[in-house]
Amino acid sequence: MQERGEKPVVALVAHDKRKPKMLEWVNAHRELLKQCVLVGTEGTAKNIRDILGLEVKSIGHGPLGGDISIAYKVLKGEISLLVFFIDTQTPHGHEHDIQSLIRAAVTKNILFALNAQTAEVLVRSLVKKR
Q1: CB of 59 within 8 A of CB of 78?
Q2: Catalytic residue among 50, 67, 87, 97, which?
Q3: Running DSSP on this structure, what letter comes out for residue 40?
Q4: What span, in angstroms and rounded, lies between the C-alpha atoms of 45 and 59?
């Protein structure tokens, strides 16, 4: 669990069709996010690094275990906030992994956002209480 004064760890995950929205959100909140340690699934992390120049540690490609790896970090208490921009219109072959990630966030009662407005409120709150 995060100690007072430590940088909060924010996990960033976005399905392919939602990656542009994630980039837009991260760019709009980059100053807040610079006060955090950022981790993400491989594609999301690479996009943010390459396009926005922010450091994001890649955890692995979502469908190849990245979602499960982040879920494990959530269960270990290593994630302060999960921002997951889900594409609800496209079926995903790794739906069980996605559900495991969501269940882990709920089980550990961490801050969890599925859309940009909620993510903004939560990241502001997280950084403010530091």
Answers
A1: no
A2: 67
A3: E
A4: 8
> What are the residues whose beta carbons fall under 8 Å from the beta carbon of 1, sequence distance 6 or more?
77
Residue whose token pair is 């530091």: 130
Give the separation between CA 53 and CA 105, rounded to whole angstroms: 27
In 3D space, the residue among 39, 11, 28 whose CA is nearest the CA of residue 105 turns out to be: 11
Q: Can you tell me whether residue 26 is helix, strand or coil?
A: helix
Residue 16 annotated in active site: no
- Under DSSP, the state recorded for 3 is P
Indicate the pTM of the whole model.
Answer: 0.90
Q: Which residues pair with 13 in a beta bridge?
A: 84
Strand, coil or helix: what is 12?
strand
Q: Rg of the chain's alpha carbons, rounded to an integer?
A: 13
Domains by residue range for the chain, with CATH: 28-128 (3.40.50.1380)
Tell me the HSE value of 130 on the side-chain side, using a 13 A CA sphere: 19
| pLDDT, tens digit, 9 for 90 and up, residues 27-68 | 999 999 999 999 999 999 999 999 999 999 999 776 666 889
Q: Residues 13, 81: contact at Cβ < 8 Å?
A: no
